[in-house]
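Sequence in, structure out. Go.
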Amino acid sequence: MPTVRTGPAIGLAAQAALLALLTATAGLGRAGWTSGAAYGVIVCFTLTWGLHRTATTVLGPADWVTLGRAVLTGGVTALIVESFLRSIAVPVLVAITTVALVLDWVDGQVARRTRTSSELGARFDMEVDAFLILVLCVYVAQQVGAWVLAIGAMRYAFVASSWMLRWMRVRLPDRYWRKVVAALQGVVLTVAASGVLPAVWATVALAGALALLVESFGRDVLWLYKRQRLYQHQPTVCEQPARQ
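Output:
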């Protein structure tokens, strides 16, 4: 008899509830509903597959926090898709994004204090972070230009490169600065999306965030390249890149 994994289904139900709330309070339209629902279904099936692949039946405490962030990211996605058709409630967008960013710090604390860190949880956390940054870039790009999409696309470009270059598949060592830079992207994008800064200052802040991201990714690529050069005559351990 197949094992029932209720976590993803609960997440999907929560996603539908959030979309209904945004419809009632922020006037979310059909386009937003459709995109938010599609996102929720994809998260549900992907997380179910991950649980099955790792033979996990229940989510850990930190995973539930990450699932909450995933649901909020679905709401952000729905609002941003809707923004291409009409004006949206920017304060609502900023509020949801801010809560999601705070929960990004919370789930790490919960994982460490409950000692429930897992490979699946770390990957889930990383993918939610990456997608939230990407959709925020899509929204901010409407105001400052398409160049800001480079912030959201960089992590995906890194992963795509690892598919083609074997030496980039080695797990990276932990580096605190990498996490600081990643968190900074979300903060700067949220501030830019809020419109509280003059356009010039928002552009400067985004350019600075992009420069730090380039430095962070560049340092990782350089480390991987030097490692490959050093151990090019030895077998390479192939693992999923640990970019966060």
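Check: The chain has a mean pLDDT of 91. The longest helix spans residues 199-230.
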